[in-house]
Amino acid sequence: MVFPALQWPMTLALVAVTSYHGFRFVGLASAGAGRAVRGRLAEGVHLLMGVAMTAMVWALGVPPAVWAVLFVPAGLWFAALTARRPAARGSRAVTGYFALASAAMVWMTGLPGGHAGPHGQHGAAPPVGWWPSLVSLALGGYLLLAAGWWAARGVRLTPAWRDHVPAGRPAAAGARAEGLCHATMGVVMGLMLLATV
């Protein structure tokens, strides 16, 4: 269960992050083809994920099938990008993270344990055995650890950070904001998963 004291802080954080991805989505809509299409798709998924996570924080009762229709294809798309030859150093780790985050969205709502809301778990059948808690613990722990990595990138603590950014990627200041946004979403999703344990 998401503690009621965390609902508003999580909501405000998600509104800020979702707004950022919304502005990026609109900005990329006017860009050309090729990499811009991939960027629009990625920003669209992040935009949907921010809205979905906000709905989950407040347990708005969206059917699990809706989340599956949105996030299973997104997860498969990110997994396909992960399997391809990387365009840049570390890109497999990033797209793999997004694939796993998409899978975690589906897990929270469509598999045993449901998702965490203010009134407990909603969405799916009650947990069966020990394995749903173990999966939620592993996913939640991974997302929290990854959030630390994203935050370190966002505040430029990682030594490999480059100010030179390849074409089609946000400028250095945008890349730092992007890292902080991913860190925020990772923390919220990780805490929501751990709340189902």
From TrEMBL:
It comes from the Bacteria. Pfam families: DUF5134. InterPro entries: DUF5134. This is DUF5134 domain-containing protein.
